[in-house]
């Protein structure tokens, strides 16, 4: 494999998709998970992708994409909601570590999206800062309702697309890097039952097969 910083955005995405296929097929190779890799990385890291995903315990990035130490710069929050500290962390992965790819990773039956749907449809409130998370997801639900969506997983896809747009709209660093071709910001949706990660927003801004 080339040095991660030498990868194009398309090559980085392909590495993730290859790893996910191995995971789904039960053929995981568990690369870069041994003592020699640990020693190699002690002085410096060169991850090839920033993974901004939901905190759900079933979305362990290095496992579902069959990667190892130093491969992914991972940022996770419930419902992949993005505050300033998240944006700063993602920008660090791109501008300092040189990652050519940012992935927004959502998943089916997302609890945060479900809670936002319940809040919109039934006025259900969540305690403490959980309510803040739900509030940040609610605009995606409202947009979905306005578009006539009814299926929960359609709202998940919409929330992934809106998160991709939000990252690019709020971060000049990410927007400029993507405009220059040095970066792609994409969105994937993970299926809990079979472990597959489907492209919702590809490098061109559209879903891929």
Name a few traits of the molecule.
Carbonic_anhydrase_CS; Beta-carbonic Anhydrase, Chain A; 5 strands; single chain; 209 residues; 46% helix; Carbonic_anhydrase_sf; five-stranded mixed sheet; alpha/beta; globular
Write a short abstract of this structure.
The chain has 209 residues and is α/β, with parallel strands linked by helices. Helices cover 46% and strands 15% of the residues. Helix 5 crosses helix 6, helix 6 packs across helix 7 and helix 7 crosses helix 8.
Query: What radius of gyration results from the CA coordinates?
Result: 17 Å
Task: Give the oligomer, counting copies of the same chain as homo and different chains as hetero.
Answer: single chain
Helix percentage range: 40-55%
How many helices? The count is: 8
Structural class: alpha/beta
The fourth-level CATH homologous superfamily of the domain at 4-110 and 167-201 is Carbonic anhydrase
Morphology call? globular
N/C terminus separation: 25 Å
Low-confidence stretches: none
What is the CATH T-level topology of the domain at 4-110 and 167-201?
A: Beta-carbonic Anhydrase, Chain A
How much is the average pLDDT?
Answer: 94
Keywords: Lyase, Zinc
Family: Belongs to the beta-class carbonic anhydrase family.
Enzyme class: lyase
Function: Catalyzes the reversible hydration of carbon dioxide to form bicarbonate.
